[in-house]
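Bug #2210: token dump truncated for Methionyl-tRNA formyltransferase?
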Amino acid sequence: MARTVFMGTPEFAAPILSGLIDERYEIAAVYTRPDAPAGRGRALAASPVKQLAERHGLTVVQPRSLKKPEAQEELRQFAPDVIVVAAYGLILPLAVLDIPRLACVNVHASLLPKHRGAAPISAAIRAGDEFSGVSIMRMDVGIDTGAVYSRSMIPILDWDTTGTLTKNLAIIGSMALLDVLPQLIKGTIDAAPQPSEGSSYAPMLSKEAGRIDWSKSAIEIWRQVRAYQPWPGAFTSWESKLIKLIETIPLSVKPSAVSGTVIGLSGEASAIGIATGEGVLSIKKLQIEGKKPMTGEEFLRGARGFIGSVLD
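Reproduced locally. Full output below:
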């Protein structure tokens, strides 16, 4: 087995590392982002990849940057044949890309060249794509622009969120990587340059990206709710309190009120509907600031005046 350095941080990356461990790859080191504040107490928390690596007794390295010569020299000392990257979160400069004997290989959660960048899964849902997938790519100095070894495709279902799709793509990514790596080690696989047409970029998300614009169509907002579940969440406000929408259904009903108006529904999936620029968005589950998630019916029991109000 090739001597491997793994670089990854979030939930998406952990099953990919787990696959390498299960297949008994020689993992010289695991690189992951430094521990970060999490939860209400903002205590420092280890990444999912670090937690997995420590359970298996692997060497964990957490540099803040790979641009410094000392960080590059430390990596060079591990003498990797292959560096595998999956949602690591740090840029790999050319000096790092040149370190492994064979290649730096990236497991990217999109069908490249579509949705290059930091948030490809949410971008695919937000765009209304029929399919998502994973590309196994040979890294270069560009952002997800390297030649591609393989692409694996799965459909995006109407009930998929970024959370559910991430779990499925991580499994697909692990299997695809384990198919490519033996061929790369033997020299029996070539990477094909990405086509110049059809490229798009999915930048890192900000919390403000979740704010709902009710002048958009019900279908667009429905995709936004799914794309930003679990983070940053799609939200609006009522009486100066934030409301996060968790589960919604777009209805092809022509609203008789201005966009953002809360209307009562009967015989639908929820008692609450919101007028949009095109159609009505039925609210199945939501969460008001300071409360637990609840169904639309449960929310109405304690929200006098909600029906008929206009959301910000």
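Output looks complete on our side. The chain has a mean pLDDT of 95. Marking as cannot-reproduce; reopen if the truncation happens again.
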